[in-house]
Amino acid sequence: MKIGTVPCERLRKRKVKAFATHRFEQIRQRDFARLSGDFNPLHVDPLFARRTLYGEPVVHGVHLALWALEAWLADRPRPAALGELKARFHKPVPLEIPIALERADAAENHFRLFTRDGHFEISGCLDPEPNDCQRVELPQSGAALTCRETTFSEASRGEGEIPLFLDRDLLARLFPAVAAKLPAVQIAQLLASTRLTGMVCPGRRSIFHDIEMHFESNAEPPAMKYRCRQSDPRFSIVRLAVSGSGMRGILSSFFNPAPVNQPSAVEVANAVRPDEFKGQNALVIGGSRGLGELTAKIIAAGGGSVRLTYHRGREDAARVIAELKALNADARCFPLDVLSLDRPAIQEALQAWTPSHLYYFASPKLEPSSKCLLKKGTGSEPNTGIPSENELKRRACPLFQQAPKGQSFSAELFDRYRLFYERGLQDILKLWAACGSSGIRVFYPSTFLLNGGEECWREFAAAKAEGEKKIRCFLKESGCGGLYAPRLPWLPTDRTMSLRLKVDPKALEVLLSEIRRSISFID
Amino acid sequence: MTLAERLSNIFFNAFGLEKEKFSPALAPEDVANWDSIGHMNMVMDLEKEFDLRFEVDEIMEMSSPQKILDILKARGVPDRSSG
Fold first, then answer.
1. A5 touches chain B (CB under 8 A)
2. Last residue of a domain, one of A229, A255, A281
3. Domains of chain B, first to last
């Protein structure tokens, strides 16, 4: 029997109370990781997740599926077995964000469940009478796996087997109805699917997208065999055929782009004259990674003194400082949240050090303003990134927003960009003005999109334009400095690469050129 | 079945778009789930349905059902009338 996609459009528009609601918490996330054996850092490591497409940890897709099944099975009086199950994970669910589950009308023993905001859909059917072969003995636990880092081509050749296991006590605590009403081996297979894709193949860079499983009577030992059945570098998708213990199915995953490593301090030093930034005290806001990191290295390599700030990336910042100190640079870092400045903490961090130059790279997560279809990659072979993340829905969650249908501009998205690109910098400059400082030279990385941009980035471009104008005005009126606002192309950073934007690969060359130009041009 | 009918089936499977709402003039912003991932799924369904493999440029051109139909016709896929 074919399981079709839920006709969600009509159902989403119904203004009815949700079938179930939930907020996935960190502690529950770790419990699920223990239950499934899927400790992929995208789900459990905020620092790793920060450098991925999503910018923060997201809930396991299979966790969502089990939550939905739990809600549906809660009212069912008798145990049953899955006949078929299909789940598609359209977009990730972050932690601590409420989501609402809806149930579509379905025939008896069939189910169709989906979240109201389009995160995922799950459908399937039950066999009313579980047969003996599905009551398979399962070990309580399995050997811990190391999350593998594979290449796309390695994943495309993936083949092997993983054992099934099930911690029944933990399952009963997390999903009591599922534990009581579905065969343990089927739950173990579902859990094994996320363990396989998240830890083994594709592993660390996996984004689990689709499950299709068919269950039959079979007395095979409790294991999941897998073999890559299809891979497509155009889409960075890997499809595994899985089977074992009465189940056969297909698991589809996308490849998450790898974090972008900026040129090392040594490599930068080869491009910079040793004294060309001597005498400069450079405060680099957002210097723990990306263009801020690169700027800190450029200034330090050129003899400048550097203080760089970070918001959450303390380890990244420490790594950058270690590289700069290896060049014998005067460099330190300290935490700073541009949306919530702590003046005493900033003063304590800087002490008698006064910046002569301020380089501002604080930025929120980049979000296109409307649906942008597949974009060409950088031209490197083969494509290792995934397409733009662009299924955005208007909701309270700051990660996922969309211009309302029929409107051409999202004020909400624009305001969120402005918080960083205008208000954050202005607040920092106000601190300096209040101290009576003057003559600070501000490097404000604006965007080439202002020279004729794409519809997808109108809010981003508009916020940069406002930032250019307002900061220039503020500096002039307050007399505390001048502005250089180069309109940079997309350069390789975690953010731009995760969105598969067409980047200029020569980040060092472009940035160094603009920093040099800024020395002689400040208005 | 006409090409448009086959395409509306694909849109139903890929995006959950009900067939009565299908029209050649639809754009991605009109269809929930027609994002880049949904687009890829649609493309893979198209390739399976019509036994074709599309180039990246063709995939990027598929911004409406009409454009998809044009590409299919350009690739020699016959359009059988419903009559």
1. yes
2. A255
3. 3-17+25-74 (1.10.1200.10)
List pLDDT tens digits, range A81-131.
999 999 988 888 999 999 999 998 778 889 999 988 778 889 999 986 666
Please give the structure tokens belonging to residue A318.
């420490």
**Interface pTM (ipTM) of the complex?**
0.76
Task: Say yes or no: A254 contacts chain B, CB-CB below 8 A.
Answer: yes
CATH number for the domain including A349? 3.40.50.720
Q: Which candidate, A350, A389, A392, places its Cα nearest to that of A373?
A: A389
Least confident range from A293-307, A416-430, B15-29: namely: B15-29
Is A354 a member of any domain? yes
* Spatial distance between the Cα atoms of A461 and A414, rounded to a whole number of angstroms: 9
Domain co-membership, A399 together with A511: yes
pTM for the structure as a whole? 0.77
Q: What residues of chain B lie within 8 A of the CB of A254, using their CB?
A: 37
- Residue A378 shares a structural domain with residue A455: yes
Residue ranges making up the domain that contains A426: 265-520
Q: Which residue of B has its CA nearest to A370?
A: B29
Are B40 and A373 inside 8 Å of each other by CB? no
Structure tokens at A224: 């999941």
Q: Contact B36/A254, CB-based, under 8 Å? A: no
Over residues A336-346, the pLDDT tens digits come to 999 999 999 99
Q: Which residues of B touch A12 (CB under 8 A)?
A: 32
- Work out the burial of residue A247: count CB atoms within 10 Å of its CB; fewer than 13 is exposed, 13-18 middle, 19 or more buried: buried
Of the candidates A9, A372, A405, the beta carbon closest to that of B17 is on A9
Q: Which of A506, A503, A495 is nearest to A376 (CA)?
A: A503
Radius of gyration of chain A measured on its C-alpha atoms: 26
